[in-house]
Amino acid sequence: MTNQLDTDKLPAAVQRVAFALRTVGWVSFWVQSVLAVVAAIILLFAIPFAIPSATATANSTSAGTGGGVFFAICGLLVLGYSVYRAFRFTRLSRQLRSRAANAVRPKKADTIKQVQLTLVSNLVGMLLTLVGAEAISGTLLAKSLAQPQALFGAAVDVGRFIQPLDIFVVLANTHATVAHFVGIVGALWLLDRIHKQ
After folding, report:
1. How distant, in Å, are the alpha carbons of 58, 62, 140, 158, 159 from that of 155?
2. φ and ψ of 98, to 5 deg
3. For residue 129, what pLDDT is reported?
4. Which residues of the chain fall short of a pLDDT of 50?
5. 26 vs 81, 109, 171, 189, CA distance in Å?
6. Which of 26, 92, 109, 168 has the fewest CB atoms below 10 angstroms from its CB?
7. Dihedral (C-alpha) 32, 41, 51, 148: value to the nearest 10 degrees?
8. Residues 6+ apart with CB under 8 A from 36
């Protein structure tokens, strides 16, 4: 017998939780996926330029950018896990709505644990991206302060100027931070819905 979704016979509280899980799961999945893909593409483009080379000068500030990119990538990896967790909400919703004879519906405590795990993963990811943002912002501040006041004269090291690529790294990190924020808001809203049932 196939797995049937018959919500007419389910208690109203279970229907509401299942609907909330499905809605938050799909919204979080798509928003986080799009932002993660855009951030990953930007970071893949920026990595070769952000990592300091062996010929970098001693006063180069690219080492801070490299550290910031490292934390941004770590936050992006955690974001990938959070996207998976958002997709799991949709499967959890399906299990809750299932009326098949052999279906095992998750208990309220198990559902809360799943949402809490997603919340923790998004909080860890946001922490990593914020540490990356601090490192990147500090590097950009150092570059802006180190820029020579006169552009004409002796040879100027272009690497000391803020480059468009530096802003791309900030943008990628911001996308990852917003994606984690969406996951946090979704998980908190789900916890509220589940506790009210």
Report:
1. 17, 19, 21, 9, 12
2. -70, 135
3. 95
4. 1-4, 6-7, 53-61
5. 15, 22, 24, 14
6. 109
7. -100
8. 76, 79, 80, 83, 175, 176, 179
Q: Which of 120, 119, 89 is nearest to 106 (CA)?
A: 89
- List the end-to-end C-alpha distance of the chain, in Å, as a whole number: 31
pLDDT at 46: 77
Q: How many helices (H) and strands (E) does the chain have?
A: 4, 0
Give the per-residue pLDDT at 158.
Answer: 57
CB 142 within 8 A of CB 119: no
Q: What is the pLDDT of residue 115?
A: 94
- In the prediction, which pLDDT does 55 show? 44
pLDDT of residue 157: 58
- Residue 6 belongs to what H/E stretch? none
Dig out the tokens for 11 from the structure: 């208690």
List the one residue out of 71, 90, 169, 75 whose CA is nearest residue 122. Answer: 75
Q: Is the dihedral of CA 128, 145, 43, 86 positive or negative?
A: positive
Mean of per-residue pLDDT scores for the chain? 82
pLDDT recorded at residue 160? 65
CA distance 45 to 39: 10
